């Protein structure tokens, strides 16, 4: 398979393929930050979910992280997730959920520029954090789109179901009423 240099090439390859080939397609990514300029959007309050493309089979989301921003511990509602790090560094902590609802960290890894990661619920839960001193940009492929997921509230020690949405979609800022991140 040829390298994929643009979002259009990526969307076309994913659209003409099945989920079984998504890993191979993602491994051929060679995306430069410049091809994503129209989707970059930042907030000092939280990481930003910038929707790029959504179909019945997959969705692409560009996450923009300021230094230190992180997700809560969360699942993927039975779907698969591939991540491609475009710039910066992400620390991923994976967790095991015990039958009694407790969560326990089971491993930490660093993901740097141009590296990829994969997770699904069989692997476990995870938490992502921008571990660099500057901004981080990561591209996420979900097969199928994730409409809601559960996240672990570390203060109450309970799981909370959350409907997901985008902060922007195809470069357009959405109403603050529709914005919801985990």
Automatic annotation (TrEMBL):
Please indicate which superkingdom the organism of origin belongs to. Bacteria
Entry keyword annotation includes Oxidoreductase: yes
What family is it from?
Belongs to the cysteine dioxygenase family.
Q: What is this protein called?
A: Cysteine dioxygenase
Gene3D superfamilies attached to this UniProt entry: Jelly Rolls
> What keywords appear on the UniProt entry?
Dioxygenase, Iron, Metal-binding, Oxidoreductase
Q: Is the keyword Oxidoreductase assigned to this protein?
A: yes
- A matching Pfam family: CDO_I
* InterPro entries in UniProt: CDO_1, RmlC-like_jellyroll, RmlC_Cupin_sf
